[in-house]
Amino acid sequence: MTTRIVDHFDRRKRDWVAEAMRRLHADATRSADTHVFQFPLPAQWGIDLYVKDESVHPSGSLKHRMARALYTHALCTGWIDPDTHVFEASSGSTAVSEAYFAKLLGLKFTAVVPKSTSTEKQELIKSFGGEVRHPGEDGDIEKEAARLAAEHPNGHFMDQFTYAERAYDYRDDHNLAATIFRQIAEERHPEPKWIVTGAGTGGTTGTIGRYLRYTRRQTRVCVVDPENSAFFPNWVRNEGRPKHRWPKPDQWITGKPSRIEGIGRPAVEPSFLPAVIDRMISVPDAASIAAMRVLLDALRHRAGPSTGTNLWGALRIIAEMLADGEQGSVVMLMCDQGERYLSSYYNDAWVRDTLRLDPAPYRTAIDGFLSTGRWHEPGAAAVPRPSQPAGG
């Protein structure tokens, strides 16, 4: 038998991949360190709240980092070449960011988004040259994106919900967690007690949690979750079980879409890593909307509803620290630009008539806490405060 050699090397495609990676690296260098703002809290509390503003990325959201990581992973794995048509399933922000990178690399891009995705987000996808499609009657955006990619002669389904956690490099010195610690290194509490974030795919949470272990830090991870999401109830339900062995096929599925765009899922996604999470907080949707508006008043920055979810969770933790006489810092993420939600979450009539929510009691609760130090959310018992404030 003679030696057989089959060579599939294509110089054009390899050169294109090299140029594509150069463009991705250049983008990472330009936008690695987004700003960190300090949310105003009473000085006598001895507690600092920092807001890492991921909304200033070129594509306008936290998902910019993930989209770049997904393209990097797909290019280095050999799934994308200059003729590839990329497909993705997304509630909006990931699709916007992936459309941005598709344009940067000269690729065709199609996003399958829920019909409820804001008009502003759909227009942003189109502004980067992407196509917007909606799912079938079952509303399954992942199934539709996978079908379209399979039917296309050179389609690739990016599949953020599967590949987000493995695409992110938690050991890289330019990941989100690493930049946070560099940017608050000169603050009075440079190692935060908590980092608070939500979960859509779980990729950001996984990166932060892994980085904390890799760098031997004591900072803890809190994941906030909206109503109707499967992450929180499954995390509670599986407490005590080996967390690397679930989600199981028999996991509890809510069957309902999240009302807070960008976070929350009806089922636990493969990229969600429960073992790196120290705490989860289930946040009322009305509280998320109230908190996003508090942030606008406090920082003059308009952010989306998932940022409101983060702020509510961060303030809930700060209330406990205050009650325990504990000082330190908390970091939360500003996820995307609020201009994407002017016709929805910032529209009182839309919130009332479409979501049937009333944020007012939760706004009153936040304002009351910031002025008195006493936490009391609607329908729940108050978190006590010591007679002497921490540091006072």
TrEMBL record:
Q: Tell me the Pfam families matching this sequence.
A: PALP
First-tier enzyme category under EC: lyase
Gene Ontology biological-process annotations: L-cysteine catabolic process to pyruvate
Alphabetical list of InterPro entries matching this protein: Cds1 (IPR047586), Cys_Synth/Cystath_Beta-Synth (IPR050214), TrpB-like_PALP (IPR001926), TrpB-like_PALP_sf (IPR036052)
- Give the Gene Ontology MF terms in alphabetical order: lyase activity; pyridoxal phosphate binding
For this protein, what is the EC number?
Answer: 4.4.1.1
The prosthetic group or cofactor this protein requires is: pyridoxal 5'-phosphate
Q: Which Gene3D superfamilies match?
A: 3.40.50.1100
- Cellular component GO terms, alphabetically? cytoplasm
Q: Mark the residues carrying the PTM N6-(pyridoxal phosphate)lysine.
A: 63
Q: Which parts of the sequence belong to the Tryptophan synthase beta chain-like PALP domain?
A: 41-336
Alphabetical keyword list: Cytoplasm, Lyase, Pyridoxal phosphate
Catalysed reactions listed for this entry: L-cysteine + H2O = hydrogen sulfide + pyruvate + NH4(+) + H(+)
Chain's role: A cysteine desulfhydrase that generates hydrogen sulfide, H(2)S. The H(2)S produced by this enzyme modulates the balance between respiration and glycolysis, and contributes to redox homeostasis. Probably eliminates toxic levels of Cys (which can induce oxidative stress).
- Give the family this protein belongs to, as stated in its UniProt record: Belongs to the cysteine synthase/cystathionine beta-synthase family. Cds1 subfamily.
- This protein is called L-cysteine desulfhydrase Cds1
The organism named in the record is: Allonocardiopsis opalescens
Gene field: cds1
